[in-house]
């Protein structure tokens, strides 16, 4: 890893004058925002800052929360300067108990590729914090930068990745690839031994009902660093599984038990509703965004829209005593159900939409086609030799899990059936459509908590590149493979998986993805700690791909 590589210099978008408005969040107000009282929404007035999202060349979606005793119409103002001496757009948004007091409104009629400042004003004259946002470029552009985040578990640590991105201020847009919140009860994930005591989770129980989901968002959004990144950058966000329940699919979830937690459709509807209330997102399940003539971004739903149920390798092995029995069962599965050509990840409608959208983007002359989606697409199998590297002190449950994964690997099966690896026919259809469109495909992925960089191929032909982004706080493979040194684990994974060119399995942070007409790159930024609030980095790693190569630079 390149530990001494310098960061790119901060941008000059924010002047000393406007910083005074942007950084109203701090000091006593930041402490207030993290108290249980504020998290539970008992405050009045503007309680959770501001946010923006869904940018276009002439519009952006604005968000705030205003708690009152009755429905309240808020005014919003948009200006090209932080003092609002020249208001260029405005309108109104309703804060209501029906939407948990969250208010959203489109600011339109804006100019493309511009930074703007915005605020909300209540009828009593009180004002929200000042937010900053940006419209997408409308024409030619020579560089665009994305701050990419995923998997931000509140209890495991501080959101230093958000804090660093806000501090260096060198991105044009934030992307969140999912697991923005987690659904587990307090003391479960993380357990008390690994939890940060000061980061008290509300509600205490697992979230199932609409009120539960709303309170969990209120808890997360009270975090000052999460508020800050929303305050400074527009965000395109997608949900993954923990915004509803672990390993969710369209018809259920691993962490949903109907006998005690009710109907899955009701829980899924509650999860979707709370997400759309609390996030600066539209109600569209998937969408595309044009970045001038440089790129098209595709926000996908790989989780709830069309995904079929995940395969369960553990159930397949259960009750089989010998290695021979297990191997035979795995081979039969590999050649049978696993290879089902009709198996769906996106669903037929979304899959067809994406194929056509890729073609439109290339035909319009845009250089990059970027998938903003949740789960890892590259092929990743467990190196069988990792079992030998565990050492004598490894817990039995870890040894059993890794032994089962090694047996699956010998049968040609992947390590994670919840990723695209569990839907090989759907992946091949997507990659084939990208090649047919002559796309410069760049796939962004979260979910795994670790950093990955893959070359993606379709039947031996380069089809694109994937940057898998490490988590903000959620633990990676070091959490249960701690007996194996991280450098050994990463090396063995890269050596065993032909498409995998880089892996880091033990560090937290985010990635800065840069697009230019000639190349795309990802700078993985690893925070020094998540146990205390800090913006210090432990190091960075940068990887590049050249337009037209559909492969990482060697």
**Structural class of the helix and strand makeup?**
alpha+beta
Q: Could you name the ranges where pLDDT drops below 50 across 5 or more consecutive residues? A: 1-35
Helix fraction bin: 25-40%
Total strands: the figure is 22
C-alpha-based Rg, rounded: 23 Å
Straight-line distance between termini: 15 Å
Number of helices: 14
Average predicted confidence as pLDDT = 92
Specify the biggest β-sheet.
7 strands, mixed
What percentage of amino acids are in beta strands? 15-25%
Shape: globular
How would you write the strand order of the largest sheet?
Answer: 13-14-15-16-18-17-19
Write the layout of secondary structure elements.
Layout: H1 16-22, H2 28-33, H3 36-39, E1 45-53, E2 59-67, E3 72-79, E4 87-95, E5 102-108, E6 115-121, E7 131-134, E8 144-149, H4 160-168, E9 173-176, H5 210-221, H6 224-232, E10 235-237, E11 248-249, E12 252-253, H7 258-261, H8 264-278, E13 287-291, E14 295-299, H9 313-317, H10 323-335, H11 348-363, E15 368-372, H12 396-410, H13 424-436, E16 441-445, E17 451-458, E18 461-468, H14 486-496, E19 500-504, E20 509-515, E21 519-527, E22 537-546
Parallel strand pairs: 8-9, 9-10, 14-15, 15-16, 16-18
Antiparallel strand pairs: 1-2, 2-5, 3-4, 3-6, 6-7, 8-20, 11-12, 13-14, 17-18, 17-19, 20-21, 21-22
